[in-house]
Specification:
- It comes from Aphanomyces astaci.
- With 150 residues, the protein is mostly helical.
- It folds into two domains: 34 residues; 92 residues, no CATH class.
- The protein has eight helices and two strands, in the order H-H-H-H-E-E-H-H-H-H.
- Strands 1-2 form a two-stranded antiparallel ribbon.
- The two termini are 44 Å apart.
C-alpha cells in the first residue's frame, strides 16, 4: 500500500531525529507511481479497411482524406504544446471522438499517443475548424441562455 502525501507529512512531523527524518524521506523517495502504458503503435489509415473506417469514423478511408483536405486543414497539425499529427490522423481523432463518446485512454491504444496528446490534437483541430468555418455556423445564444437551467 503506498504512503499518501498526508501520511508522509504526518510521519515527517513525528520523526524526532535527523536519522529518522532521513529514513522517512528515503522511504517516500522510493514510492513508485504507476503510470498508464502508451502502446508502441503508429496509426496507419492505409492499413484500415473501409468497413472498419465507416464503423469507427463514419467515413471510408478516401472520405476521411478528402474531408480533411476540403476542410482546409494543414498537412501537419502542430499544437501549441508541439504535438504533431498528420492531417489524416487529426481527422480520425476528431471523427472518432465525435462518432461515439469514447475515453481518451481507449483512443490511446488506437493512435499510440498519450491521453494528453490526443486531447491536445483534438482541441487544436476543433479550434482550427472553427477558425476556418465558424462564420457559417449558427448558434442561438438566446435559446441556450433561456434553457440552460433545464
Amino acid at each position: 500500500m503506498p504512503i499518501t502525501q498526508t501520511d508522509g507529512v504526518m510521519l515527517l512531523s513525528m520523526a524526532k531525529t535527523v536519522r529518522q527524518r532521513q529514513f522517512v524521506l528515503a522511504l517516500l523517495a522510493t514510492q513508485h507511481v504507476e503510470r498508464p502504458l502508451i502502446p508502441e503503435v503508429r496509426f496507419n489509415l492505409d492499413a484500415m479497411t473501409d468497413a472498419n473506417a465507416v464503423l469507427d469514423y463514419r467515413f471510408d478511408v478516401v472520405g476521411i482524406r478528402k474531408l480533411g483536405y476540403y476542410l482546409g486543414l494543414p498537412a501537419v497539425v502542430v499544437t501549441e504544446n508541439w504535438s504533431r499529427a498528420l492531417r489524416d490522423e487529426a481527422m480520425c481523432i476528431v471523427l472518432g471522438r465525435m462518432a461515439f463518446p469514447t475515453r481518451l485512454h481507449g483512443m490511446s491504444k488506437t493512435f499510440g499517443r498519450s491521453r494528453s496528446s490526443i486531447c491536445d490534437v483534438f482541441l487544436h483541430t476543433i479550434n482550427l475548424l472553427y477558425e476556418i468555418w465558424g462564420n457559417l455556423l449558427y448558434f442561438n445564444l438566446r435559446l441556450v441562455a433561456k434553457n440552460i437551467q433545464r
